[in-house]
Specification:
By secondary structure, this protein is α/β, with parallel strands linked by helices. The chain is built from 13 helices and 10 strands. The two termini are 23 Å apart. The structure holds 5'-O-[(R)-(carboxyoxy)(hydroxy)phosphoryl]adenosine (KG4) and zinc ion.
């Protein structure tokens, strides 16, 4: 089954075609983040306007990438109705993000998907954006293909499932607006274990970056700055291999609230206040900025790692799934992986490649494949405040 996944919850306009919830046939993302970098954060109205401009070209591109990758087509052919018809008949269903997110942005994807579903007489599946982040871990990125699954006699449409997480799975979802820890007993059976009581992890990165005068989105900017500090201060020049990097850096300038509490919750809102006080209105040198960036990153990463390890020990899942935009953070990926190893926890660590951590259409299509519940287009509505375990 080939599903077209559409994602417009924030400042990315994304569409992808995924086969059998695993194989990416196309994955197109247009972002308006550069525009928001100028204002230091997202202006919802502007993001929605940009979504309107991008949605049709992005969907068109994803369909043509999926089914015409081999031969470039002429302009005339691209405009012919026979060509369009051939693309449409190649997909079996449409999946779309219905929340959480910015309502103006969500509506662009939703109304487009509904119109296409009506015109093409195709099933439509509403998808929870946060759940879709988790499902990025089901996508086959080729890393864990066994020799057997690549055997030339294998059936062309046999999906490779070696890479897929096993249930029960524990998922940490860390994005710009949400931070949740959930237990997945099976597809569609999610239990909420804990989450942030105030700011999301990504929000903490973004707000602290702004205080440091770093561009939006703040997570990648802080990560680059922090890496410079770590390399200059803690790493012997000859250590380049990730596994050999020491990671017991003394970076404890900022507090890690709730870290020793017997729950699976976080609180990140105090971090920006602590950073604000530390800066104290001074003009920072590049080195001072890098140090604070490294301290911010370490405080967030430590909090996320400690609670995740505690939850793995308590719930004993077979798989641990890291996901969401903040999962792109190298230090978080590294530290979680190493702690799971050093604590000898019997759990398989999964994390998507960077481009599938941040918002994309492939995760939406994949989530819809494994939770295939089409509904009438008339019943599909935007729900900007949808929670990770919320009813759609
Ligand atoms: O999941 P996502 O792309 O969009 C939402 O659903 O919110 O997450 C965006 C968040 C932003 O807060 C961004 O700063 C953060 O993910 N992010 C990172 C990194 N890349 C993106 N945070 C830390 N390190 C990164 N490398
Ligand atoms: Zn997201």
């Amino acid at each position: 089954m080939k599903i077209l996944g559409i994602e417009t919850s924030c400042d990315e306009t994304a569409a992808a075609v995924v086969e059998d919830g695993s194989k990416i046939l196309s994955n197109v993302v247009a972002t308006s983040s550069e525009m928001h970098a100028k204002t230091g954060g997202i202006i919802p109205e502007q993001a929605a306007r940009q979504q309107v401009k991008s949605i049709i070209p992005v969907i068109e591109q994803s369909l043509s990438d999926a089914f015409n990758s081999k031969s470039p087509i002429s302009k005339r052919k691209a405009q012919s109705s026979a060509y369009h018809q051939s693309l449409i008949t190649s997909i079996n269903a449409i999946a779309v993000t219905v929340g959480p997110g910015l309502v103006g942005s969500l509506l662009v994807g939703i109304e487009t998907a509904k119109s296409l579903s009506y015109l093409w007489k195709m099933p439509i599946i509403p998808v929870n954006h946060m759940v879709a982040h988790i499902y990025a871990n089901w996508i086959d990125t080729g890393k864990s293909r066994t020799k057997n699954s690549e055997h030339k006699n294998a059936l062309p449409h046999t999906p490779n499932t070696n890479h897929q997480p096993l249930f029960p799975a524990l998922a940490l979802v860390v994005s710009g607006g949400h931070t949740d820890l959930v237990l997945l007993k099976n597809h569609g059976h999610l239990e909420w274990i804990g989450g942030t009581r105030d700011d999301a992890a990504g929000e903490a990165f973004d707000k602290c970056a702004r205080l440091l005068g770093l561009p939006y989105p703040g997570g990648p900017a802080i990560s680059v700055c922090a890496e410079k500090f770590i390399i200059q201060n803690f790493l012997p020049a000859d250590i380049t291999h990730q596994e050999l990097r020491p990671d017991n850096f003394q970076l404890d300038m900022f507090p890690r609230p709730l870290i020793n509490k017997d729950n699976f919750d976080w609180s990140f809102s105090g971090l920006k206040t602590a950073v604000f006080r530390k800066i104290g209105g001074k003009k920072l040198t590049a080195k001072e900025k890098q140090r604070i960036a490294a301290e911010v990153q370490e405080a967030i990463v430590d909090s996320l790692v400690e609670k995740s390890i505690k939850a793995i020990i308590k719930f004993k899942p077979k798989s641990f799934l890291l996901s969401g935009g903040v999962a792109a953070n190298k230090r978080l990926r590294e530290k979680l992986k190493k702690r799971i190893k050093s604590e000898r926890l019997r759990v398989k660590f999964h994390v998507p490649p960077i481009d599938l951590c941040t918002d994309n259409g492939a995760s939406i299509a994949t989530a819809a494949f494994f939770n295939f519940r089409p509904i009438s287009w008339k019943k599909i509505v935007a729900d900007s405040g949808l929670t990770i375990i919320g009813e759609i």
